[in-house]
Amino acid sequence: MSRRRHIAFAVVSVGTASVGCADVPPPLWHRLAQGGAPTGAGGEGGGQGGAMTPALPVCRGLDDRDCARVEKLSAGTWHTCASLSDGTLRCWGSNASLQLGSGETPQAIHVGPQRVSDLSSPSAVGLGGRHSCAITANSPMADGPVWCWGSNRFGELGSDDHVYQHVPQPVGIDAMRVVAGQSTCAITAAGKVFCWGVLLNGQPFDEYTAAHSATPLQVEVPGRVTAIGIGSRHGCASSDEGVFCWGRNVIGQLGNGSVDNSVTAVEVSSSIALPIHQLSAYAEHTCVLGGDPAVVQCWGMVPLSGVVDTPTTLVDQPDGEVVQLEVGWRHDCVLLADGRVQCWGDNHVFNLGTTAPSSTVPVDVHNLDDATELACGANHCCALRATGDVVCWGSNNFGQLAARPAVKSSPTPLVIDLDLE
Questions:
Q1: Which residues of the chain have pLDDT under 70?
Q2: Residue 31: helix, strand or coil by DSSP?
Q3: What span, in angstroms and rounded, lies between the C-alpha atoms of 225 and 240?
Q4: CATH class of the domain at 1-38+68-219
Q5: Which residues of 183-222 are buried (b: 16+ CB within 10 A; e: fewer)?
């Protein structure tokens, strides 16, 4: 039975949506010390149930016999996941809050990839800072059950409790796409938006008194929504009626030319280039690929540009046809049709994939000219190459590059060994 509640997003103090200090659970390490590893709401371990199919070795080169190929990449703040053709979801990086979903106890860094337990053939994946979510639908354009695991301090797993989970747990709604931050939001095939976790209601965030919901609440966005992105305290969505944002707006995150917070979705400035082809958000800024011909526009706290309160076209555009747009913490990247990846913004941990200084001008990632897929986290990015290899660059402070801790960061894309340990 669905636990979904249908309310206007402006009503944020319903049931357990707003809690005080006494209601916020203690940190994960405290609860594990008191009671051991968490168990799922659906019984021992949770998940889809049934025996998991054996994981195949990763294909090398053009040989695809008795092996699995990477089909999709997803990046969170400090971890990354790859969906493979054998139905496995393999993740690496930080597991401090159980966000790798392998059933193991928490680890600050997990260098080797881990298979997400009790989950097969995800059609969509969304990774946050300390939790992960996936959808298991029959096709990428259909609704399917939403599953989440990892941190649940603010109800970001949508399980109507605050228990951290080390394997996927059902949220209780069906959706087509999912995105995650400290909140989680999902889009249904009908174009409706549901969010849970920290409420993007425009209020200042405090880790002890943050208003939140442990069950999905509908966000009323005009029109049929096709794309969504969420930052630290704001959300933006593109629909057939325009682009709308809600939440915190003190540095222009809502893109409507004001600094007024909003608990309801407001339309961004008319300076936005339509139609919208892609939308991506992270931390305090949002970018879109829009218009015909398409251009990249950004607003909020834009890397190296400061506060921009309306959608503004980048002065220096990528020098090729953009097929994918990814937004990081203080850098942004695009995948071009010719297989190159270009990035701009801060480069203090080589997140631009080069040793060059920080730059507002898009620069090519070193030694990468055959990329087919791109995913970026806070300070790292990963790409799928035409050869089938996955490469990552930038920060490795939590094992995002699947490299040993001695490697702090890398300006050169490193090949990730996705065979399971």
A1: 1-51, 202-210
A2: helix
A3: 7
A4: mainly beta
A5: bbbbbbbeebbbbbbbbbbbbeeeeeebbbbbbbbbbebe
Residues in the chain, total? 421
Count of CB atoms situated within 10 Å of the CB of 109 = 18
pTM, two decimals, is 0.88
Give the pLDDT of residue 28.
Answer: 40
Say how many C-beta atoms besides its own lie within 10 A of residue 292's C-beta.
9
- What are the domain boundaries of the chain? 1-38+68-219
Is the sign of the CA dihedral 392, 370, 278, 354 positive or negative? positive
Strand 242-247, strand 262-267: pairing: antiparallel
pLDDT score recorded for residue 22 = 30
Task: Tell me what pLDDT residue 18 has.
Answer: 28
Task: Give the closest residue to 242 by CA, choosing from 290, 202, 282.
Answer: 290
Give residue 42's pLDDT: 35
Residue-wise pLDDT for 316-338, tens only, equals 999 999 999 999 999 999 999 99
Give the number of other Cβ atoms within 10 Å of residue 92's Cβ: 27
